[in-house]
Amino acid sequence: MTSIDDVARECGVSTATVSRALRGLPRVSEDTRARVLEAAVRLGYTPSPHAVGLASGGRTRTVAVVVPFVTRWYFSTILLGAERELRRRDHDLALYNLGGDPEARDRVLGTELLTKRVDAIVIVGIEPTATEQRRLARPGRTVVTVGLRVPHWPSVSIDDVEVAEKAMAHLVALGHRRIAYVGGLKDEGLDFTTPRLRLRGYRQALAAAGLPHDPTLEVDGGFTSDGGIESGHALLSRPDRPTAVFAASDEMAIGVLHAAKERGVRVPEDLSVIGIDDHEMSRFMGLTTLRQPVVQQGQIAARQALHLLSSEPDDEHVPEHVTVSTELIVRETTAPPSS
Amino acid sequence: MTSIDDVARECGVSTATVSRALRGLPRVSEDTRARVLEAAVRLGYTPSPHAVGLASGGRTRTVAVVVPFVTRWYFSTILLGAERELRRRDHDLALYNLGGDPEARDRVLGTELLTKRVDAIVIVGIEPTATEQRRLARPGRTVVTVGLRVPHWPSVSIDDVEVAEKAMAHLVALGHRRIAYVGGLKDEGLDFTTPRLRLRGYRQALAAAGLPHDPTLEVDGGFTSDGGIESGHALLSRPDRPTAVFAASDEMAIGVLHAAKERGVRVPEDLSVIGIDDHEMSRFMGLTTLRQPVVQQGQIAARQALHLLSSEPDDEHVPEHVTVSTELIVRETTAPPSS
DNA sequence: CTGAAAGCGCTTACAG
DNA sequence: CTGAAAGCGCTTACAG
């Protein structure tokens, strides 16, 4: 590997001068700068990130993004937005996928590891425990969350209670009175606030509409399509089955649609289904849903992290909670109840 | 940040001893090691990766994974497999998403940048040009490809010609004689070998079955669902429309199904459709497809990269091309032609 | 505008 | 078993 010394020798100048010339710093003659640049390119020189990091105060120029499940549409799309923004500002994105594994979680969030290998951490869709928060929040540590809020950290998310209320409002306006909720109640070893908030929105909407609350109509779909199928079957096999299902994610809603098809329950004639996300597959299923801007949330989170990194450590940074808005997309899976 | 000096001072030993104790090296008394360990934990000490990297020969313990489109199922699933394996061996995964942007491609593959920031590079689904190959292949550089082969680098992939032949064989065995191909012919500014090979498999299968080759039956679906919809409409609006469509990916196949539905073309009665991948959504669509093991391919690629890194530079490493096998999954979108 | 020198936080022979 | 010292490849005051 060619080092800064090689370039310096080649040009007959000191390493200090090479360093300045290459970084576009002032106090280098144009002539010298040109020669250095030329030699650097010719020799194929790139600074060693380790040396740069060590010499200039430890910045790694990499931001960790921690997600629970990379392959799910929401998370990979957040990644897309964050990566693009980070790359633009010449930072690397280090991917940490927890995969529902408590051990992985512990290794990532429960140690100091993360805090030295990266400059900042973006946590997506996982609620750190109090202990984890304390560990991550060391002074100078930059943490941003996506999809949920933690008091002292900046965040970006939708309003989970409101989005659920909007979905319910659509169903209620259509005339439905017996509406089931498919969400995620168990936490798979991770902690999510999202399911809790959406469930709350569901219940509040029920109350607001003067509809009775039947706890047996709240089922766990684990935020997966498979979970949606199971939930769908459980709900549709009941004698007093609901006329509509509100699923807290499109993936679960798609599962419910599948279960309905398997049982010969017609949608939307016999059953209305609504989801949340506007997953890329939703329009193929004709699914009515609440769209949320996901790429944008990833981008905003990256920007927040980068902003904190560039600001002075003792700037009084009021944590900024950004709430992006959702939009009802009516397609073919919702209609007035037939009975 | 607490440094190795703090720990050394705390224990009244030298930094060399702390270094040895913490890394489990021999020639440290058990008593000393215990004291050092305790102090390190108590002080919350973690080695600075920059210092470690600089002092011990530049290893960054991070592997770059370069993908063209993070959000597509195939790529995010490769990521899942690779991340898990890398994490297990205490490496970071740095994500590089090209996003169909030629500029991004140039920045990533066309410079030395990548080669110093990471120890190894895993390139997924993109064929580097000759120039890029030369630049990436500097001595000591470890590059592994997924989904395609490059002569001097290890790789893991399915047999793209064979998988296409298998899909076609299924259709031919069902009695279809007029079969269209929906693939990706234009390259979106990136280079993919996959579409080319699958197209070749399609043509070879046609020849093997003694079927005529009609070039107008080969259309470009761009490997997206939207492309699949367009292709579907184009194909189904013809007076001499095909009785079956072989799509080179499930995402495109799903698009074709959607187009058929929009036009009132019944599947499989009026049209058979087969894809490749076994995308997580495919079973909800009842799509017949050729399943490929994707998580496993990501894992193998990571393992190959790590293996090369740990072996001696002048080991004569014959590049190992791993081919994983595919499996026909028959569901409800394929049947004998009705006419 | 340019260079000599110290320092970033570790690891690694080399002595002892 | 342990320590003093050099060195990894840069950046950064400080002189000049």
TrEMBL record, chains A, B:
The keyword Transcription regulation applies. Keywords: DNA-binding, Transcription, Transcription regulation. Gene3D superfamilies: 3.40.50.2300, lambda repressor-like DNA-binding domains (1.10.260.40). Residues 2-56 form the HTH lacI-type domain. The keyword Transcription applies. InterPro entries: HTH_LacI, LacI/GalR-like_sensor, Lambda_DNA-bd_dom_sf, Peripla_BP_I. PANTHER family: HTH-TYPE TRANSCRIPTIONAL REGULATOR GALS (PTHR30146:SF109), LACI-RELATED TRANSCRIPTIONAL REPRESSOR (PTHR30146). This is LacI family transcriptional regulator. The lineage of its organism: Bacteria, Bacillati, Actinomycetota, Actinomycetes, Propionibacteriales.
